[in-house]
Known about the structure:
Elements lengths: L1 E4 L11 H9 L2 H13 L1 H4 L5 E5 L5 H7 L4 E6 L2 H13 L5 E4 L2 H4 L6 E7 L8 H9 L2 E12 L1 H11 L3 H6 L18 H10 L2 E9 L8 H5 L3 H11 L3 H4 L4 E8 L2
Parallel strand pairs: 1-4, 2-3, 2-5, 3-4, 5-6
Antiparallel strand pairs: 6-8, 7-8
Amino acid sequence: MRIKQRGKYDQNFDHLVEKFEKSIYGTVKGEWRLKLLQEDLEELYRKESLNIWDAGCGLGQMALWFAKRGHMLTCCDISYKMLEKAKTLFAKERMEADFYQAPSQELSKTLSQQDLVMFHAVIEWLAEPLKSLEMVSSRVRPGGHLSLLFFNHHSLIYRNTLRGGWRLQTILGKTWYGKGKKLTPPYPQKPEILLQWLKKNGYSIKAHTGIRVFHDYMDKEALQISNEAELMELEYRYCREETFRNMGRYVHILAQKQL
């Protein structure tokens, strides 16, 4: 197991690691995200010994899931604290991976092409989203796959408009970053733009899933009076239908690069 450090740019979450761990990964919402991602990636998971790059690995849950199956993992993150937690998770499970403390854009310049590149909840934090996507996706081999998870622009607009008040002005002025909760990404992405980009760059779409297509639009009172199992059943029923999947808080697209 190796750890290497390089120059940093874009958003670093060293100061928010504990908040991420508690608010995102340690919740029913986080478990639901992992469940749907794993379903979309199940066919690749069952293949023999793929080379996989987790570009912006965070705490390493998805990378570990693949590693336990016998796949070869390369993990990078610009956050030292995130990477240390991912290393600890792997060590606890006696799994191996190559770890780099580096921006995914920089590592893409030297990394060999991969069978699968996972780019999960990263692009919405980057100063140059599409340029970064181009760099990261260049590491997908012909016939390989790109797993792209992103914070949805449409969900941000719709949810904040429903909540009203001061949020309306931030939406009109596109000044939502830094307002309210600190975990709102500055560059939420539009599904149709990324789908267009992928198709233009030689990818075919294999999976398209909305993550939390209802839950995040419900206020506390609505959630309190709702049966969680019934709500999750509705989430599952509609998460891959065209209209609803593009309203998910996050959207996951699995795309295959043409040979």
